[in-house]
# Entry
Amino acid sequence: MGMQSAISVIVADDHSLFRMGVIQAFSASGKIKVVGEGATKDEAIALTEQCQPDVILLDISMPGSGIAAAREIRQNWPDVKIVMLTVSEEDDDVLEALEAGATGYLLKGSMAPDLISAVQTVAAGDSYLSSNIGMRLYDVIRNVSAGRKTDSLVAKLSAKEATVFALIGKGQTNRQIAEATGVQIKTVKFHVSRLLAKLGLRNRVEIALLAQQSATDRMGGGTSRLSGQI
# Structure
């Protein structure tokens, strides 16, 4: 991928040294072009309006709140994908970020290849969670969905929806699902939208976690391993 087709990104974080390191990693990759950088919620929103990037990275605790910025960006520029950067693994922070519209959640201790992978993944329309955060969210979703009669909802899925549901749970991207099932990516996206509506979920991350819970329950328990890319 040359720079002409590089993914455009804004990096918004109030720690200048960290921000510089992220920008250098992206520039060195040759796959991601940083089109703006900021340190506050207001700067992140102004840059989003000005640059219309493919992806914006938001520090969850920057001045003005990264989560507040995510909510406003999601409302006004829904095509911009959001990745939250944080030192926090707290369940409430992760869930609040996902509810605000983030499709990626990455710890600041992550290595450069993980940052690049996260941006590429969300830009492609999929979701990305650091693996340890994914495992924590898995437990949270299990508890939340326990009273939803999830099994009966899953049982009502069509054959195609059930296939997509299971493949999302295995960590496959929309493109991989399309290739595996012989349909177009837009068809996969349609099935994902139907899954969200039928299961009463808010985003692809919850579909993946619920699918893994369902698979684990059918096998009689055990622990499900989450990949970063879901």
